[in-house]
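As the next step, I wrote out a protein sequence along with its fold in token form, included below for the reader:
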Amino acid sequence: MPQAPAPAATQPQTQKQALTGADILVLALVQQGAEFVFAYPGGASMPLHQALRLHREKIRTILPRHEQGGGFAAQGVSRTSESVGVCMATSGPGATNLVTAIADAKMDSIPLIAVTGQVAQAVIGSDAFQETPIVEICRGITKHHYMITAEDWRNPEDVQAALREIPRIVKEAFYVAKTGRPGPVLIDFPRNIQISVLEGEIDFDPPMHLPGYHPERKHVANEQVKQVIAAIKRSKKPILYVGGGVINSNAAEELTAFAKKSNIPVTMTVMGLGSFPGDDPQSLHMLGMHGTVYSNYAINEADLLLAFGVRFDDRVTGKLDEFAKHGKIVHVDIDPSEMHKNKEAHIPIVADVKVFLEKLNAAFTDADKPQIDEWWQQINAWRDKFPLKYNDAGDFILQQYAIDELCRQTKALNPYVAVGVGQHQMWAAQFYKFNKPKHWLSSSGLGTMGFGLPAAMGAQAAHPGELCIDIDGDGSILMNIQELATLKCEKLPVKVLLLNNQHLGMVVQWEDRFMSGKRAHTYLGPIDHPEWLGEGKGDHYAETYPNFVEIARGFGLQAKQVRSKAEYPKALAEMLASEGPYLLDVLCPYQEHVLPMIPGGKTVRDIITE
């Protein structure tokens, strides 16, 4: 993984002017390369916001309309660039509103710096107004955490020592977040230290002190590489199973080079999309619960599983005992705790995937290529028999079609695409083909509804000249819809494709499949609203609730609703051509299911295709 950012050229390493603790923290963020902070103020973080105002030429503060939105926006920066996203909140409810975004980053191995204001040390532990023990709350969902305190807050010398520690803490936080297996780091900052004034000079690039943390790239032994090559050469049915670790280690180029050299088929987890070109003939696309039939069949029949940067998640494996049971498993991952955690590996290699692939590519020759013509014939037969497809619904707009058309109109622009969580998320993973890494933003491990809009917002801030799209569902977007105000006020031209079926679609699908179609609070309209129909394909609504077009316009966005398939391509093109943020409300049938589907805990033999 990349090492800690170099000090910014314009930032002095020592500072002589009078600085508060809040000033020091903000300048330390700048020193580590932070360009943005998504920050919502409150009583315990007001000094930090005054410092951000003072240093606004060095770092841009974006005011989200909810702390969770700020946390996901910071992830949008981290997921699409080499920078580490930063979010900030006050103490108490502000801090706890960040918890979901922090947990989300931990599950998906996303680097994130979360700064929280805290009540003054004098009242910590007294249940003071807006006090929460946020370090304890987040202990299990952070990679590391800090609380900036003076040993004795009454002693001026101890306070000065605490102030001088701030640059080291911030430097370490960025280093820990980005290196090894990435993850979120929390910095809790009591108000008394924020407002204290430094006496004398301070070093903004101090040495770090992390005696127990050794994320240096681990050496890959030549013997390990030889073992893997020997296994590949002997295999008749190999498959590459790649995940988010390939993207986190910036190894997509090396992975693609190896796949081309070896001619081995590639399948990706939802976190791994973009690590190999989605429209390449070697791509079997996504595997797992809603992956392609042919990728799941191939995994089931493979005699060699090259698992790179994956964690054998249950949404991929289904019933563990039956997953890839015929094959030898090579597992490469930077985190030793992942080895044998869910699935026993025959050749476990604890290493950065990029380092391993560099050595593998250097050693791999044409003579090592496996003879797999018959394997490809079998895979292509499955692909022909079970393609990803959707029905013709006449003039109704199916969600799959809407995403397919979006892909056709935007693929050449290589946009950043964020999604909420639900059916639309899985359809986007199936029908939008990503050819580059870090252009797909999905809450994959935690599955957080409300992720898509603020994540796209963060990506747009990090890539101001690029097309950033949020594909969302009506249930998911409502959880952070207030961020439409941020798009308008901060001039972030995110395009929102809202696939509106008036239901919690994924839960409805499970109700249909496993609960005899009995609805239990999955219809999102008013209970006395007679317009939604429970029978028949393609049923629509005379009215929709809420009126997303009016909501979006109320926030100052351009917005339009479309119900007709014949009108959809033009409406989509109009949205994409608009200069500012835009919401296109697309009314879709609620009866559609995401297929294929392997029920939870089942095997590929139980796959549902109809």
